[in-house]
Amino acid sequence: MGIHWGTGGLGSMGVRLMVVDDHRLLAEALASALKLRGHRVLAAAAPAAGAAELVISRAPEVCLLGTATPAEPGMFDPVVRIKRERPQVAVLVLGPVPSPRGIAAAFAAGASGYVRHDERIEGVERAIMKARAGEAAVAPQLLQGAFSELLNPVAQPDDEGQRLLQMLTPREVEVLVRVADGEDTRLIAAGMGIAPSTARTHVQRVLMKLGVGSRLEAAALAARTGLLDRAGPVPHLPPEAGAG
After folding, report:
1. pLDDT of res. 219
2. What is the structure's pLDDT at 95?
3. pLDDT score recorded for residue 89
4. How crowded is residue 94: how many other Cβ atoms within 10 Å of its Cβ?
5. How close are the terminal C-alpha atoms of the chain, in Å?
6. Residues contacting 93, CB < 8 A, separation 6+
7. Residues 188-196: contacts with CB within 8 Å, 24+ apart?
8. What pLDDT is stored for residue 157 in this prediction?
9. Where does the HTH luxR-type domain start and stop, copy by copy (predicted)?
10. Which of 51, 59, 93, 98 has the smallest count of CB within 10 Å of its CB?
11. Angle 100-109/77-85 helices, nearest 10 degrees?
12. Average pLDDT, consecutive stretches of 10 residues, N- to C-terminus, the chain (244 residues)
């Protein structure tokens, strides 16, 4: 499993810690820095899948648990299990800049706090001390974002697709869906029963509104933001049926 053990430097002053992260270098660097500050670091690296068993068996005061994808469903199952079997262990999630949903999910699972991967060691140590004292350890701006999302779920950052959809007319949405399906101007015109010159104009307006320079970029943007899923399918007629 590749677990690395370390001993403390300042005796009873240090916190009994575990650092559990898939990224060995990150885990070992953080463990080394915390050891130098007098904490007793029990483990420095282990796969996320084995995190819960490791923490439950060693029962540290505080566990720093790394995650690369805080918003992914089930990501905080190890936290739930640790808190169920070792409720006295304070779990601090260590991860990238999270979506507010990621923060909310971490706390819902029972985490004591969330620390960003790029946080300075002083900030990590402050979070550890807070967690050991039973306080919530999270930067105010992250907590504020989480509360905003819980109170206003419609204002989610991934609602980009909805915002773009509202900029387009129903006819332009249909044009975009057809562009994303790989239809050329002739097919778009035939399928919608309009002249090719009109179809070209619609395509240009769609590109302009989306702020992209090509049909390929428009299709990629629509797919990435979920705009196509929201728009729904359009009828695809044989060329003769729509040409009149």
Report:
1. 86
2. 85
3. 95
4. 25
5. 69
6. 65, 66, 67, 70, 76, 79, 106, 111, 113, 114, 115
7. 189/242, 189/243, 190/237, 190/238, 190/239, 190/240, 190/241, 190/242, 190/243, 191/234, 191/235, 191/236, 191/237, 191/239, 191/242, 192/242, 193/242, 193/243, 193/244
8. 46
9. 161-226
10. 59
11. 20
12. 36 79 82 93 71 89 87 83 94 83 85 88 93 88 70 58 84 91 92 93 92 86 79 58 40
- Cα 33 to Cα 130: distance, rounded to the nearest angstrom: 18
Instruction: Tell me if 71 sits within 8 A of 145, measured CB to CB.
Output: no
DSSP 99: P
- Sign of dihedral through CA atoms 103, 104, 107, 108? negative
Residue 25 is which amino acid?
A: L
User: For residue 143, what are the β-bridge partners?
Assistant: none
Q: Which amino acid is at 153?
A: P
Count the Cβ atoms, other than its own, within 10 Å of residue 191.
23
Answer for the pair 212, 204: CB distance below 8 angstroms, yes or no.
no
CB 59 within 8 A of CB 86: yes
CA distance 222 to 185: 18
Spatial neighbors of 170 by CB under 8 A, at least 6 apart, are none
Specify the DSSP element, H or E, that contains 223.
helix 215-224
